[in-house]
Amino acid sequence: MKKFVDWLDSNRIAIVFAAVLLCAGGLYMYRALPKDVFPNSEFPRFQVVADIGFASLETTELNITRPLEEALKTVPGVRETRSITERGTSTIDIYLKWGTDLNQAWQYIQSRIDQTRALMPAAASVQTTKMTTSAYPMSEYGVWSDTLTLKQLYTTVRYSAVPRLIGVDGVARLDIIGAEEPEIWVKISPEKLAGYNLDPAAISAAVADINNVSFLGTVTQAGKTTFAVGGSRLAGVPDIGAVVIASRMGKPLYLRDVAEVTEGRAEIRRLVSINGHKGLFIDVLKQGEADGLRLGSDLDAKFAELEKEYGGKLHVAKWDL
After folding, report:
1. pLDDT, mean over the chain
2. What is the mean pLDDT of residues 209-237?
3. CATH of domain 42-132
4. Is it the case that residue 42 has pLDDT exceeding 80?
5. What digits encode the pLDDT tens for the residues 146-179?
6. 2-10 and 12-32 are packed helices; what angle lies between their axes, rounded to 10 degrees?
7. By the 8 A CB rule, do 132 and 124 touch?
8. What are the start-end ranges of the H helices in the chain?
9. Residue-wise pLDDT tens digits, 66-81
10. 255: left (phi over 0), alpha (psi -120 to 50) or beta
11. I want to staple 283 with a disulfide (CB 3.0 to 4.6 A). Which of 15, 100, 175, 296 is the partner?
């Protein structure tokens, strides 16, 4: 024991230096390592969600759930599939064997979905999620206003707040829930349609053809290159009503001649109330390796900036999930 004490005494400078070095390294790692409630982990499970609006249960089951299930069962390594069919929505959970290469499994799943698209309605949207600890929202922000309508609130959040928030380092996705999303409705008169010998497909094609911007080419002159684009974007009810859908007796036939074009809103699937006020939720999903504590602080600061910028028109409440 005396020899050990003598050795410590004779090497005290080196020991103090090593202790200081270890403390400095520990402090650096504490600041550098990402911090979160749960560590980022991957599970041998994927979730496929397909949506076709408000189709009936029978239509969703036959045209979405069944084709997808039959295709996804052929993915190598699949142990079990479970599905839930709701009106217009099909959710399929894919359980893989432990040890399966998840990146390769992802590619197989996407391939099977692409092969099945020909059997599904053209309007169907399909989203595949790898089930990790980051697949669920880390926090949720409630936004409401005492002066803006729900449509104005959605427009403000979607086109002003979301572009700023999505740029915060570590944000993977932002989901807006319970919003009153503005739409433009076209109510076609069957009698007028028959009188002009038209069908809804022709009207849909006419609107789609004009509502796009395409690249036409380049023009090089005097050492300068100009990019040429053509087409237009329909901005509102007057523009859509003025779309030419056909010609009769040498005169243009406008959409407003056969349909009523009005402002409306998308169907609301969830009603949101925040502290007694109607509003919307913004769910935040983070990237896998992001520092959850730092990300939460950065988002809080961004929301505080938005509240200050809009001078009290927007109010925000936060919940950690």
Report:
1. 84
2. 76
3. 3.30.70.1430
4. no
5. 888 888 889 889 988 899 999 898 888 899 988 7
6. 70
7. no
8. 2-10, 12-32, 57-60, 66-72, 102-116, 150-156, 162-165, 190-195, 200-210, 237-241, 292-309
9. 999 999 999 999 999 9
10. alpha
11. 175
138: Cβ–Cβ under 8 A, 6 or more apart, which residues? Answer: 36, 284, 285, 286, 292, 295, 296, 320, 321
Angle at 274 between CA 271 and CA 275, to 5 degrees: 135
Cβ 112 vs Cβ 106: under 8 Å: no
The tokens of 82 are what?
A: 């479970």
C-alpha span between 53 and 71 (Å, rounded): 22
Domain covering 139-181+268-320: architecture: 2-Layer Sandwich (3.30)
Q: Which residues, including other chains, have CB under 8 Å from residue 29's CB and lie 6 or more apart?
A: none
User: In terms of Cα–Cα distance, which of 52, 232, 268, 260 is closest to 153?
Assistant: 268
Q: What is the CATH number of domain 183-265?
A: 3.30.2090.10
pTM over 0.85: no
- Report the Cα–Cα distance between both ends of the chain, in Å, rounded: 54
> In one letter, which amino acid is 69?
E
Tokens at residue 265, please? 């809103």
pLDDT of 288: 76
Read off the tokens for 279: 């509003």
The answer to whether the 42-132 and 183-265 domains have the same CATH topology is no
Domain segments of the chain: what residues?
42-132, 139-181+268-320, 183-265
Within its chain, how far is the Cα of 210 from the centroid? 27
What 3-state class would DSSP assign to 45? strand
Task: Give the mean pLDDT of 79-108.
Answer: 91
pLDDT for position 5: 67
